[in-house]
Structures are given as C-alpha cells and as structure tokens.
Amino acid sequence: MTTVRVRGIYTTALTRLLGTNGLEVVQASDPIQERFDDAFETVPADVTIETTRDRQGVEVSGDPDTVETVAGELESLAIDSFRWKDSVPRGAVFDAEVIDAGGGSGATVDLGDGRRGHLKYDDVNGYVDSGDRYRVQVTEPTPPWTDDDPRVEPTLEVADGLCTLSRGRSGVSAALRGERADELVGMTDLLSVDVPDGWGIRWQSGAADADLEAMGTALEAAATRARELEAALEDAPDRPSEPGLLAGLQSTSWCWFGRESRLALDNRRREVETTMAGHHRIKAADRAASAAVDFAEAVCDAPGEDGFPFGVVSRQFGPTMGDRIEIGHGKPDGRCISLGRGEVTDWDADGSITLERSMRGGGTYDALGVPKEDGDVAVTKFREGRWWYPTTYKDEDGTAKGTYVNICTPVELFPDGARYVDLYVDVIRQPDGTVDIVDAAELEDAVDDGHVSDELYEKAMNVAEAVERALSK
Questions:
Q1: Residues 125 and 256 in one domain
Q2: pLDDT tens digit string along 256-304?
Q3: What pLDDT does residue 102 have?
Q4: Number of folded domains in the chain?
Q5: How far apart are CA 404 and CA 115, in angstroms?
Q6: CATH (domain of 445)
Q7: Which among 143, 415, 455, 462 is least buried, having the fewest CB atoms inside 10 angstroms?
Q8: What residues contact 43, with CB distance under 8 A and at least 6 apart?
C-alpha cells in the first residue's frame, strides 16, 4: 500500500480524497484521528504533502513514482487545479557556487543549469564570499509562483517523518522532551537495524505514538535511503566542483488550487466533518481566519447552504473600500507576475470590487495599440468567482482609451490581492467600439506545451466568445 503523510489546512479533505482512491494516509495528527473512523498507522510515508506558506496549494515530495500518482490525483480535483514538477526537489544534493554574498541573511548560490538556491550564513562555518563552493542539500524547496529561492544547507540528511538520519551527527537524540524522549532514545538499542557509519539518529515528535515495530520499520527505511544517498554520491569528487546536481533520490511537485479546486476540497471535507461554504477559500485568505472558520463550524449544525459568504469574509479580513491590493497574474507554467497595486474604490457584498491604478507614460497598452501617458488610470473590475475581468484605461480627463478583458481561472479576492491564472486569450474593445479576440494562439501553445488541459482550453474560448458577444451589442 502506498503511504502518504499530510499536513496543513487541506489535511482533512486530502485524507478523504486519497483514502477513497486507494492511498493510505499515515502519521495522522490528533484531529484527523478523531474525525475518521479508520485506524491510521504510524509508519514511514512514501510521500509527504505539506501546505505551502501562502496556503495557495501544496508541496508533494517523496518517492518519484508515488509523487506522480498523488500529484495526478490532486491535479484532477477541478478545472483550475495545476501542478508543476520542481527541478530543485527536496533532499536533492548539489554542488553549489556562491554568486551573491552581498548582505541579508544568506547568499545566493548557483546550482547549475539556471537553478538558484539560498544558503543562510548561519548554516556555514566561516566567512562566505562570491566564488566559494559548497556541497549542499535542498531542505526547503519553493513553489514556482513565489520569488523565493529554495533553501539549501551544507548537510546530508534523510527523513521519513518519524526519524531523521544526519551524516556528521553522532549518537541518538529526540525532538521531544521528558520521559517519552528518554524512552525513544532507550528503545533504539532494542532495534536490530544497521545504521550506516557516520550517521546519527534523531527521533521526531511523530515517533511518540509509534510502537517498537513501527520504530524499527522507520529506522530501517531511513537507513536504506542513507545508503542509497551514499551510493549516489560515491563517484562525486571529494571537494565541491562545478555547480550541478549530484543526487536526487526524491521528487517534488507543486499543486496550486484555484477557487473551484478549493470548493471541491470543501465537498470532500464535508463528507467527514461539518464544513461551511468556502472553508478552504477562507483559510487560504488569512491565517487569522482559521480560528474563525473553526469556531463557525463548531457552533453551526449545517453551515454553507447560502454559498460562499464573500461579504462576511471580506468585511472581516479584506479587501474592502480604501485597501490597496496587488494583482497576482498567475501563468499556467507556474509563474506569478505582479501587475501592480491599486486602491479599492468600490466594494459590494456580492463579491465585486473596483480597483484603480495610476499608470506611467511610455509604450502602448497591449493589443490596444494606444500610447501609455502620465496621468492615465487603469480601472479594473473584479468579481469573486468570475472567469474574466475588464480593465478600462482612461486618460487624465476621464476619457476611455480602450478596454481589455482578461480571460482567466475564477478570480479570488484575498485581503492582499486578487489571484487567478491567466489563460492567455483576451478580448479588447477599442475606443471606436471595435471588439476582437486576441492571443488565442498563445493559449493553443500552452495546450501543446501541456500547461493547459483541453477542457480548460474549451472553457477559456467559450468565455472569450461570450464576452465578445456581450461587448459587441
């Protein structure tokens, strides 16, 4: 049976989803143990799923074949689910060269083939300077929609959620305190597991619920991976050389969930636990919202009958009148481009906001061919859940210079920004009333490249054609 460890705001829904698709969730947290009737084993996980820091999606890391299977399940959640394979996966070992040690908390390092990493100064002995080379391991990969570089450290470790083996660490320790920590350390002597020389053992908090057999299974699995890592590095030079990948035994994929995906996860969670409409949508918006959602679900017998409560959520957490928010223009290849920040000048509880941005002169507006001039204002109207949004450009006198309608996955309006994935095709209306669909070829290219499904292509074109008809009336 394939085993998966899940953590973060999507845990209940994903536990239900994966369980019904023949995957076994292990190392379950106390709340998950309480919500499900199933008995969850405390054994090593083939794959770990972690919610990203911005709560927009999840990291899926572990055995490459299993990652492919699990990421495929998550991608099929809804029409606006996306996934991307990371070229700098968790646990991979690289030779790295420092290319920028100009300040901050760490240096930027070259990992080869255009890949970058962040090496914290505190993780390195001695002064770090440009040109220095290190052998590093990826300890915190980063999703493609952020600007952060993956964190790397000059270490060698293998972990399975229950125990961690570290090369250079000595003896046995536990990431716990008190009697249970002493028990874990003492019980290690009872395990007939051959740990490679030079590798120290550290039991993680999850091992507190493990019996002796589970501890032995976990330690054996970690020891096997440590040997595999040593074998993969056997032919590597003694000292770090040219930047490049030396060993990558695991795979990492990233899954981004759009609004439809979060609603699908709500439905999965609702099969197990009381779940208000927009549960994951609200929790993805703001960390402070999690406690409010948990409270609402605890006191409501049947929440969610009236649909996603945008007005309530927006009044509590934003965005609302006077806020300044960013337009997060996602791309199907995983990138996220900022289109700038604007002020919310109109707001409605139905999920509609108007955002105004001041424009700088220079160049022309895409597809419209109209010059950008100082004093121009971009007026963008978003509506939560809509597959498109219009931006009208006006000069300093308020005269319209044209309208650009972006076709995208359903818009989500978070406290700090609007978020969606751009689907390339757009509809424009010139000042003389001429309406055209543009950039359809770019959408077709995205389909050919495997970034956009046939279903999503059809949806995007249908939306574009509907918008074109509406604007032509």
A1: no
A2: 999 999 999 999 999 999 898 999 999 999 888 887 888 777 666 434 3
A3: 80
A4: 4
A5: 35
A6: 2.40.380.10
A7: 455
A8: 3, 26, 27, 162, 214, 217, 218
